[in-house]
Specification:
This protein has 397 residues and is an alpha/beta fold. It has helices spanning 17-27, 56-61, 75-86, 99-102, 107-113, 138-144, 165-187, 201-207, 211-218, 253-262, 277-281, 284-296, 300-309, 320-325, 327-332, 373-379, 384-392, and strands at residues 8-11, 31-36, 50-51, 54-55, 65-69, 90-93, 118-123, 195-199, 236-239, 245-248, 314-316, 335-340, 344-349.
Length: 397
Amino acid sequence: MSPLEGLRVVDVSTLFAGPMAAMHLGDMGADVVKVEHPRRPDPARGHGPAKDGQNLWWKTLGRNKHTVAIDLHTAGGRGAFLRLARTADVVIENFRPGTLERWGLDYAALSAQNPGLVLARVTGFGQIGPYRNRPGFGTLAEAMSGFASSTGEPDGPPTLPPFGLADGVASLATAYAVMVALHARDRDPDGRGQELDVAIIEPILAMLGPQITRWDQLGTVQPRTGNRSVNNAPRNTYCTKDGSWVAVSTSAQSIAERVVALVGRPELADEPWFASGAGRAGHADLLDDVVGAWIARRSRAEVIAAFDAAEAAVAPVYDPADIVADPQFNALGTIHRIKDPELGDLAMQGPLFRMSRDAATIAFTGRAHGADTDDVLTGLGYTAAELAALRADGSIG
């Protein structure tokens, strides 16, 4: 049995943070129903590369989700959504604050039909405050959280990630919040659910360590250091003889000592400044020169083998071809190959973790817009005539 089998999640969110949270829950066996507007599907379906007219990001983001097309602006669509929410444990939405209220689909209305429902509301800035009605995307969260200001080269501009980092972090926070709320519901004598307010600006801020406490107590901020760290050295990426790159980390004192011994400079470990990570970080130029020169004279395979033998910490800087071929990822089963009806054998990253008894699974890839509308609504009790009427007035697609 899948861990979340029997749990129904209605995903009425778009783009990334909300839909990715629903994807994580679906990986664990939840029955996820993706609700999209009949004429304006989730913009994620057009994000990034495509093959043969099939969006590749959607194949992953939409996996394990049954798709229905319902227009929440219409009376018929709202009625269908209410009936669907009545069967759900969780609804995930990311409309601007006040939108569900305007449609008569706020938590008061939903919980009146289903007192145990958990409503996860994912927005850029949260449900309260002066920015609540602003459009919110992960890029803005990466900027406002302090991530961008601390990322990049010392003499360069603040740097944004080339992917949806803040959305991804928020998706994990949302999935965690949902499970906390479900546990609280199970402990509540009346089995009551609740609303969850997830602001995308907050989870990534929580991941950035003690920057707020540092500013509060010391009045200082973390500077941009490129690939270096202010907490230890050597810590950087280095180019090998064959043009590949490797990353070295020495967060532990013993690892730092092994690295300088490996590269032929064991005497550096006797320097007073070498005894702490901060001291080594203050001599990063010297350590980078020593380690970088040693690595530059060897191939990537030679560097990895030597570091492994010395029990020092190193990793190759991978691209997707490397990831798919790597024996550790293969041992973990990280990459799943799923049969897709349009594209055939399709590789994608799998669920986030393994369990000793229960199994996560990817049952199917992202499905076509509205592919399951009739099946899902029929399961809610709609007759063929009622579906035809809803389709005729544009309430469903």
